[in-house]
Specification:
Distance between the termini: 19 Å
Shape: globular
Oligomer: single chain
CATH topology of the largest domain: Aconitase, domain 3
Helix content: 25-40%
Length: about 900
């Protein structure tokens, strides 16, 4: 820090373990300087404030920034922009690979312009965890793990070669190889090291990650959240992460969970409650005695699902439970003691009580009111009590799509259809996928042990899972299988079909692998509403499997239970799971493990030596990774590949950006409804030969069996642009309804009055020189932080999106790619304005001086020659975003700064 005004006395000393002493920027000293009642600020705000104070250089971070945040008020108008410099960046491979492609392309530009390629170098530590690539192709056998990993490496060897090049090309870039675990659990168990130090200066761990569930690390008192790869790349290259000063909602947890209630039940209740409280874009901070009673892994379950309840973070302050978790996960004693010493010196240690902190709003939840629950069938915030599952499914079956239902005649509910599999027929509500998967729950030993205990009791009673149900176990780290095996619980899970299938996200991100062809045929031919049950965090339409429309989130033990029952339209509080080997009915209550049974096994999951052993050498016994060739050199040479391609975002790059201008004569490419997710926008999951992406691969000699998934091909823009807006469940309202009133689903639009794929129409408009826009409803871009949702939008030629509201990350990513996000004002909407897709549009007010969140004019020109001007809000929210937009995006802005600014 170079500022010498109000803050000169904030650099102070504290006693570190060993007594040598260390320097830190004192928040108490900042308060003593008269900058505000900092001791009453939310803990999360104080941690951000420390980073702003520490990086105050008079340029990107100024004294005024420090003063503004120090004077944070609970209910002020949010206009101040915070430049937040993070300590590190975490990537997962689906978003990390295109980011690495961008960095490699930036080095190409540097070399081409006579600059040292090493000028493009991450300035903070970067960890990429490969966790999104493994699919559940094989399941239910002891060979499944090895078979799935062999397929993973066969499909992804070109991507992994790029990663190995990155490891040797960039000094601060590490890779956690495939087969180790899910990024967020690895972050908790291994990457997090408490307080960080540089040249004797100590500061809290902070980060951003390229996965929206980066928030899981909030359980350890770490400020961090998910951003798109675009924003993360800028953070890696020394740019602050800019955000508007947030509201902070305090959530007081009271009491304790009842016997038999899991952390999953708790988080589904929290998600429902906070969605209703509209915490989108806000910090959520938990406090109170009930919060203090939760383990770090229970806190992590709640923090992980911050994107599902819409918050930027779900933050838990550091307390004794934090230190205990560090010790039990094998952190060195000095790190544990240092974390406590630093946070005590800053006045940040301990769980706040009611009245200690000034929050923007305060909510309360009594843990004793939580009951066993699931969520679904299409959104994670739609909680269903276990005892209501049967009634709920039956109601949703006949409810309209607008009511989140399936719009089927109630009389068809009990219809069953035959399949070509002997003795297997299908009915609505039948479970076809049951997956213990995802960071949300597999990082929590209590629910994993509960699943194992339930499985053991079930097998002892002679219960089995029908073989046509795709069952899988995909833990968040190797630690999970280590403790399950020591406790004798891995084998009974495998006996029920939950054999180890891989260490990765798998089913939760759509890598469920395909169903048997006979099941797909029966579902498609008869429009069967089949079900999946998974211990995941997201269940958006077509995410889990394109043919499974009812997807329910549940705790791991409930996943096992519903797999045994074989259907979701069942009341497990009164109906038996099945018939035991003794011919008697077996009820869930007979199998459900007690808290004492779980507690007796927990020590196996809290063995520091196991963590130390498994994380000591990530390449040991990893022959598949060790055999991947490692390219060398400072500049990537882009060998021929259908997985990796040099991105086009720097084509024609020069020292000065072009000018921005009003958008004129734009045609709508899509008109979309509410809650369009990044899963709908961004290419994800499998794709067929008839799709534009499939046709492109076929033209390059790639057969269908080698297509892999969109996610694995994120490093190739030719694939990704063809898959943007190609989701099989997306509904473009420009297309007229069918004769039965239903809408065409999939990536289609109208071009000159004729149905065409979105890609083909976009390319036709680009060839004509016609700009395009997208119109949408509420919560546009909700879901995962998929940077290709914005990159693909740009490459399709879209100049602006006009929506009723936006999800935080996607709005930021649109600006980061130079696409203009606009928001309807008041009651204006596609429907109220009568927009059908026949119109053309001008966006006026782009030229000249731009200011954050200014009004612009959307001129609607109708085919009859009439026009109408509508005021819209420009959602370029901060001054730095104006700079990004003028430069054509955040990456060109950063590259110009690196290459041309001394």
């Amino acid at each position: 820090m170079t500022q010498q005004d109000d803050f000169s006395n904030t650099l102070q000393s504290f006693s570190t373990p060993g007594g040598e002493g260390g320097r830190y920027y004192s928040l108490a000293a900042l308060e003593a300087a008269g900058l505000g009642r900092i001791g009453r600020l939310p803990v999360s705000i104080r941690i951000v404030l420390e980073a702003v104070l520490r990086h105050c250089d008079g340029k990107k971070v100024t004294a005024e920034h420090v003063r503004q945040l120090a004077a944070w008020q609970p209910n002020a108008v949010r206009e101040d922009e915070i430049p937040f410099v993070v300590a590190r960046v975490v990537l997962q491979d689906f978003t990390g690979v295109p980011l690495l492609c961008d960095l490699a392309a930036m080095r190409n530009v540097a070399a081409d312009q006579g600059k040292p390629p090493k000028i493009v170098e991450p300035l903070v530590p970067v960890d990429l965890v490969v966790d999104h690539s493994v699919q559940v192709d094989h399941y239910g056998t002891p060979l499944a793990l090895r078979q799935n990993m062999e397929l993973e490496f066969a499909r992804n060897s070109e991507r992994y070669q790029l990663m190995k090049w990155g490891m040797q090309a960039f000094d601060t870039f590490r890779v956690v190889p495939p087969g180790i675990g899910i990024v967020h659990q690895v972050n908790l168990e291994y990457l997090f090291h408490g307080v960080r130090e540089a040249d004797g200066l100590y500061f809290p761990d902070t980060l951003v990650g390229t996965d929206s569930h980066t928030t899981m690390i909030n359980a350890l008192g770490v400020v961090g959240w998910g951003v798109g790869g675009i924003e993360a790349e800028a953070a890696m290259l020394g740019q602050p992460v800019y955000l508007l000063t947030p509201d902070v909602v305090g959530v007081e947890l009271k009491g304790r969970l009842r016997e038999g209630v899991t952390a999953t039940d708790l988080v589904l209740t929290v998600t429902e409650m906070l969605r209703r409280a509209k915490v989108v874009g806000k910090f959520v901070e938990f406090f109170g005695e009930g919060t203090g009673s939760l383990t770090v892994t229970d806190r992590a379950t709640i923090a992980n699902m911050a994107p599902e309840y819409g918050a930027t973070m779900g933050f838990f302050p550091v307390d004794d439970k934090t230190i205990d978790y560090m010790r039990k996960t094998g952190r060195p004693e000095r790190e544990c003691a240092l974390l406590e010493a630093y946070f005590r010196a800053q006045g940040l240690f301990g769980m706040p009580k009611a009245g200690d902190i000034d929050y923007s709003a305060t909510l309360s939840l009594d843990l004793d009111t939580i009951v066993p629950s699931l969520a679904g069938p299409k959104r994670p915030q739609d909680r269903i009590e276990l005892s209501n599952m049967q009634k709920s499914f039956e109601a949703l079956f006949a409810a309209s799509v607008a009511e989140n239902g399936f719009g089927k005649p109630a009389a068809q509910l009990k219809t069953r259809v035959s399949t070509r599999i002997p003795d297997v027929d299908l009915g609505h509500g039948d479970v076809l996928i049951a997956a213990i998967t995802s960071c949300t729950n597999t990082s929590n030993p209590s629910v994993m042990i509960a699943a194992g205990l339930l499985a053991r009791k079930a097998t002892e009673r002679g219960l089995r899972v029908a073989p046509h149900i795709k069952t899988s176990l995909a833990p968040g780290s190797r630690v999970v299988t280590a403790y399950l095996e020591k406790a004798g619980l891995l084998e009974p899970l495998a006996q029920l079909g939950f054999a180890l299938a891989g260490y990765g996200c798998t089913t939760c991100i759509g890598n469920s692998g395909d169903l048997a062809p006979e099941l797909n045929e029966a579902i498609s031919a008869n429009d069967v509403i089949a079900a999946a049950v998974l211990s995941g965090n997201r269940n958006f339409e077509a995410r889990i499997h394109p043919n499974i429309r009812a997807n329910f989130l549940a705790s791991p033990p409930l996943v096992v239970a519903f797999a045994i029952a074989g259907r979701v339209n069942v009341d497990l509080s009164t109906e038996p799971l099945g018939t035991g080997s003794d011919g008697k009915p077996v009820y869930l209550r007979e199998l459900w493990p007690s808290s004492d049974e779980i507690a007796a096994i927990l020590p196996f999951a809290q063995d520091a030596a196991t963590f130390g052993q498994l994380y000591a050498d990530l390449t040991r016994d990893n022959d598949l990774w060790n055999e991947v060739p490692a390219p060398s050199g400072e500049v990537y040479t882009w060998p021929p590949s259908t997985y990796i391609a040099k991105p086009p975002f720097f084509d024609g790059f020069g020292p000065q950006p072009g000018s921005v201008s009003d958008i004129r004569g734009a045609r709508p490419l899509l008109i979309l409804g509410d809650s369009v997710t990044t899963d709908h926008i961004s290419p994800a999951g499998a794709f067929g030969e008839a799709t534009p992406a499939g046709q492109w691969l076929g033209s390059h000699g790639v057969t269908r069996k080698d297509f892999n998934s969109y996610g694995s091909r994120r490093g190739n823009h030719d694939i990704m642009v063809r898959g943007t807006f190609a989701n099989v469940r997306i509904k473009n309202l420009m297309l007229p309804p069918r004769s039965d009133g239903t809408r065409v689903e999939g990536g289609f639009t109208l071009l000159d009055g004729q149905q065409a794929t979105v890609y083909d129409a976009a390319m036709a408009y680009l060839q004509r020189g016609t700009p395009t826009v997208i119109l949408a409803g509420e919560e546009y871009g909700t879901g995962s932080s998929r940077d290709w949702a914005a990159k693909g939008t740009l490459l399709l030629g879209v100049k602006a999106v006009v929506a009723r509201s936006y999800e935080r990350i996607h709005r930021s990513n649109l600006v980061g790619m130079g696409v203009l996000p606009l928001q309807f004002k008041g009651s204006d909407s596609v429907q109220s304005l009568g927009l059908t897709g026949d119109e053309s549009f001008d966006v006026l007010g782009v030229e000249g001086e731009l200011s954050p969140r200014q009004d612009m004019t959307l001129r609607i020109r109708r085919p009859d020659g009439s026009s109408r001007d509508v005021t819209v809000l420009c959602r370029i929210d901060t001054p730095i975003e104006i700079d990004y937009y003028r430069h054509g995006g955040i990456l060109p802005y950063v590259l110009r700064e690196l290459l041309y600014t001394a």
